[in-house]
Specification:
alpha/beta
């Protein structure tokens, strides 16, 4: 058992070093957070000490939500995004350049391999997760982003009073996610019963994927919770 634990730690350490080296080669932008292994856990508030709030989008896709949100928020909010696909990071870096944002950083990594040690506790005031991959086949469900372990990580990641929003068009996955948060005493819903909504919420930036789904008549469910 000890040998397995050591092997897992060695694999993770090797992944972090390779990730940092690859990212330095792939991305040359002021909007990319190029950290080093010894910097972990990261503190986004130290990166932008003049900002009052920190926002994180996990799985930002093509970056259209970040591009829409940044100009509509106060300059004292710092925006961060995590994505695993390099081409999506490149596309979103171009979007961020158009916003002229001085307080935004993207990250490229696989959360399955680097999650619990990535950020300090209470790193973010707001977290957004749009349409996480549902992995609908039973044999693949262990790959889902949102499970009890991830919910525990999110609880640590959010500052007290911080908010989390999740949107999904996959009903079974969404109600599984809703169950996690509704049965966790560290969170409280910001929406009235039944504690989610299929409606378009005023002022909420909508992803390209969600616009398509709603446009063809499919339902998108949204939950919003607060870290107690």
């Amino acid at each position: 058992m000890k040998a397995e634990s050591t092997a897992a730690e060695d694999y993770q350490n090797n992944y972090v070093h390779r990730l940092c080296e690859q990212n330095r080669e792939l991305f040359d932008s002021d909007h990319f957070w190029s950290f080093n292994p010894e910097d972990l856990p990261l503190d986004p508030r130290r990166l932008f000490p003049d900002c009052q709030r920190t926002f994180l989008e996990i799985g930002f896709g093509h970056g259209e939500v970040l591009e829409e949100m940044i100009p509509d928020h106060p300059a004292d909010t710092a925006f961060f995004g995590i994505e695993r696909r390099p081409f999506r990071v490149r596309k979103t870096l171009k979007r961020l350049k158009r916003t002229n944002s001085r307080h935004s950083r993207l990250m490229r990594l696989n959360l399955e391999l680097l999650r619990d040690d990535l950020f300090v506790d209470g790193a973010f005031d707001d977290i957004l997760i749009n349409h996480p991959d549902p992995w609908p086949k039973k044999k693949h469900k262990q790959h889902r982003l949102l499970n009890s372990q991830t919910v525990n990580w999110l609880a640590k990641l959010l500052a007290p009073g911080g908010t989390l929003e999740v949107a999904s068009d996959h009903a079974e996955y969404f109600f599984t996610i809703l169950y996690y948060f509704e049965t966790d005493q560290r969170f409280d819903s910001l929406l009235p019963p039944p504690f989610y909504t299929p409606d378009v919420l005023p002022g909420r930036a909508m992803s390209r994927f969600e616009k398509h789904k709603r446009g063809i008549g499919e339902t998108v469910h949204i939950l919003r919770v607060k870290r107690i």
